[in-house]
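Structure in, sequence out. Go:
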């Protein structure tokens, strides 16, 4: 059996077993998710919330931005509180103070430590006991807890509507007045907040651990890290060290120094540019425009952290609240990166065969129009949803679904899925004749198609939840999209495309590239598929999910230890021959991808992945550190690099402005690292200390986040953000000025035309 065949067998075995386990525990999550009650009643039979109110309340929360306004169970935005941690702490203090006044005639804070400890123990018995009746679907709560619910409803009503006493706090949280305009809707959202918080403090049947594995940390109610958190954290670190050792040994054993005869001239200059390949140019233009728009909304979103209801004095929140700017910032980041990659695929597929199948150009143009409609339509729908101009059903279909990274309405999701399958068809058609010819590139092309098919297929996981699906189940499927689609098969696609480009440039042997891609894919997916569970430790899932997530998320980091070798190899290739200098900046982008893969995905990712770390860090700015450095550093830089490869082929006779590209490249990367090191990371680490010492409620509170030192750290972000934004503007300027650049000397242009002929 050849090495290629062995690796293909390993690929199918790994993916089959991993998805079987992922599916099995998905079924477990369906069975053991926090129950959605038919109603919530008091011990005297008074109805506090109807079950439908809680379900509708989830939709109300989604309609105002959902995870783009604070977070639930630690998933979402960082400016406002985590509503479950906030509700839990406020409810606890309210009950403790009532009891303290009844029993001692003074406030809870004035009691001795012994008296406080006695009341806290009583509180834990009150809140942690599971009073859900499976036969009737009813949750029963005490009179005093019902009073706490009414008190909290009044507080949140004032916050999300227009209590003038909460204006300053509302500004700190970047929540506009009347974010919820209807009192019925507000009551329903309070019901959802109650249920989501109930799951964080209520013990599972037959267990002393809550549905969210004692998250958030809150000493008052006994929410403390369990032994499982510590055990699986230790195991994950041991496994990481073992995996690194095995990987280094295997790499040293398998490393081969091969000599490749470098082409005298650029092989890509010999390829024919078909009409459909030329039509890809407008994709790159729209990507550039989307980059500018995304950066603009990023600036606005970051500024809301210091001026929650305005933008340098202008009351922007009335027409563009934080939840909208953050939604568009996150969504456009995904869309422009994906479009850059889709465009690269559309360019590469016909380039392999040298011809367009019938109607290929029409398909490329039609897909482009569809993408424009999806981007514009989803953004308009999200604005209308958050401004409360849609009903709850209409909002689900055309407005804002409220789930981070999958915010667009269901109609736009389906539309995008159809577009991805159209893209897949446009990729397959030109490659079929090449695959039938049994070329030496067959295995590499097959991997290219497998990764392309996965990109189209795994986005469909976003359709697996409904309008009122249990949040624990919706989170399970959402992370299929975010982790498996974005972090998983996009990574495979990136590996394949990078290797394929080097093969086409004549810098890498086809067999070497194929073996490298297959091995990298097998290693990455070995940890990557089941590593999805590390996002679900505290989302109402069984304990086994934590064990699997901790184990396999550690394995995700293992292949990244060799990233320095990959970066060096790419850098070495950039010096391999004289003509390769034309590809200096595309290759440097791949070097940057390797750097950010190690730092952003590896170091910053592993900081928050172990269970005990994530227990205190989930929902803090440490997550934003990983998100920015991994999403933009890895996928964004790769998108820019792929664009430059395509542009180099399209603009063959233009003299490139290398000084502008150099300025852009270094500004983007320096700006990103400064953004993280000067601002986001220090804030996240300080929040972590606060979370450990006081609790999640405090780490996300205005009391902590509005201290002068924290305000200074937020303003320091301007340094990195400005350098970063200027670098991206320079890149966009480079793209749009290519048509006006002077061309090569006439004799060189004639020589190039002769080569093409």
């Amino acid at each position: 059996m050849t090495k290629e065949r062995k690796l293909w067998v390993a690929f199918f075995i790994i993916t089959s077993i991993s998805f079987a386990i992922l599916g099995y525990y998905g079924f477990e999550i369906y069975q053991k998710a926090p129950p959605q009650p038919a109603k919530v009643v008091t011990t005297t039979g008074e109805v506090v919330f109807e079950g439908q109110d809680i379900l509708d309340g989830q939709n109300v929360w989604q309609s105002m931005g959902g995870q783009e306004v604070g977070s639930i169970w630690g998933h979402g935005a960082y400016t406002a509180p985590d509503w479950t941690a906030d509700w839990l702490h406020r409810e606890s203090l309210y009950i403790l103070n009532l009891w303290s006044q009844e029993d001692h005639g003074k406030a809870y804070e004035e009691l001795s430590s012994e008296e406080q400890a006695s009341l806290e123990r009583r509180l834990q018995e009150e809140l942690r006991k599971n009073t859900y009746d499976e036969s009737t679907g009813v949750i029963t709560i005490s009179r005093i807890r019902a009073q706490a619910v009414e008190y909290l409803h009044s507080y949140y009503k004032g916050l999300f509507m227009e209590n003038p006493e909460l204006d300053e706090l509302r500004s700190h949280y970047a929540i506009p007045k009347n974010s919820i305009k209807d009192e019925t809707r507000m009551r329903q959202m309070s019901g959802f907040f109650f249920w989501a918080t109930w799951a964080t403090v209520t013990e599972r049947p037959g267990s002393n651990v809550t549905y969210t594995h004692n998250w958030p940390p809150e000493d008052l109610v006994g929410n403390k890290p369990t032994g499982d958190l510590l055990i699986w954290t230790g195991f994950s670190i041991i496994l990481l060290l073992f995996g690194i050792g095995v990987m280094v040994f295997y790499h040293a054993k398998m490393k081969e120094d091969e000599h490749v005869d470098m082409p005298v001239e650029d092989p890509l200059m010999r390829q024919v540019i078909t009409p459909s390949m030329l039509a890809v140019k407008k994709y790159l233009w729209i990507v550039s425009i989307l980059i500018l728009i995304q950066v603009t909304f990023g600036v606005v979103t970051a500024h809301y952290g210091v001026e929650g209801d305005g933008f340098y004095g202008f009351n922007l929140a009335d027409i563009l609240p934080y939840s909208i700017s953050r939604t568009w910032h996150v969504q456009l980041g995904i869309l422009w990166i994906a479009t850059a990659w889709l465009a690269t695929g559309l360019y590469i597929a016909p380039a392999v065969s040298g011809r367009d199948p019938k109607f290929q150009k029409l398909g490329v143009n039609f897909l482009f129009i569809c993408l424009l409609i999806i981007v514009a339509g989803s953004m308009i729908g999200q604005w209308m949803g958050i401004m409360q101009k849609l009903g709850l059903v209409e909002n689900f279909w055309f407005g804002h679904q409220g789930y981070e990274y999958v915010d667009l309405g269901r109609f736009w999701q389906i539309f995008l899925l159809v577009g991805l399958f159209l893209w897949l068809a446009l990729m397959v058609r030109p490659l079929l004749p090449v695959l039938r010819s049994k070329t030496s590139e067959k295995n590499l092309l097959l991997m290219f198609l497998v990764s392309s098919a996965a990109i189209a297929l795994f986005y469909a996981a976003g359709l697996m939840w409904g309008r009122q699906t249990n949040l624990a189940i919706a989170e399970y499927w959402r992370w299929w999209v975010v982790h498996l689609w974005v972090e998983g098969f996009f990574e495979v696609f990136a590996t394949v495309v990078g290797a394929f480009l080097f093969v086409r440039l004549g810098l890498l042997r086809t067999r070497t590239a194929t073996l490298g891609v297959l091995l990298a894919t097998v290693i990455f997916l070995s940890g990557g598929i089941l590593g999805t569970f590390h996002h679900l430790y505290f989302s109402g899932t069984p304990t086994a999910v934590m064990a699997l997530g901790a184990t396999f998320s550690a394995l995700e980091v293992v292949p990244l230890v060799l990233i320095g070798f990959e970066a060096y190899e790419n850098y070495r290739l950039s010096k391999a021959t004289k003509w390769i200098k034309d590809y200096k900046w595309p290759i440097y982008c791949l070097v940057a991808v390797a750097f950010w893969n190690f730092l952003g995905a590896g170091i910053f990712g592993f900081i928050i992945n172990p269970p005990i770390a994530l227990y205190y860090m989930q929902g803090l700015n440490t997550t934003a550190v990983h998100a920015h450095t991994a999403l933009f550093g890895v996928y964004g830089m790769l998108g820019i690099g792929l664009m430059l490869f395509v542009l180099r082929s399209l603009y063959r006779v233009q003299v490139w402005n290398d000084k502008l590209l150099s300025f852009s490249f270094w500004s983007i990367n320096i700006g990103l690292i400064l953004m993280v090191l000067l601002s986001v990371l220090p804030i996240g680490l300080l929040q972590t200390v606060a979370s450990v010492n006081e609790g999640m409620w405090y780490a996300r509170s205005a009391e902590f986040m509005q201290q002068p030192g924290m305000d200074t750290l937020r303003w320091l972000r301007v340094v990195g953000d400005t350098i970063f934004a200027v670098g991206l503007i320079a890149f966009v300027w480079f793209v749009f000025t290519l048509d006006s650049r002077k061309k090569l000397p006439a004799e060189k242009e004639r020589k190039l035309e002769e080569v093409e002929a």
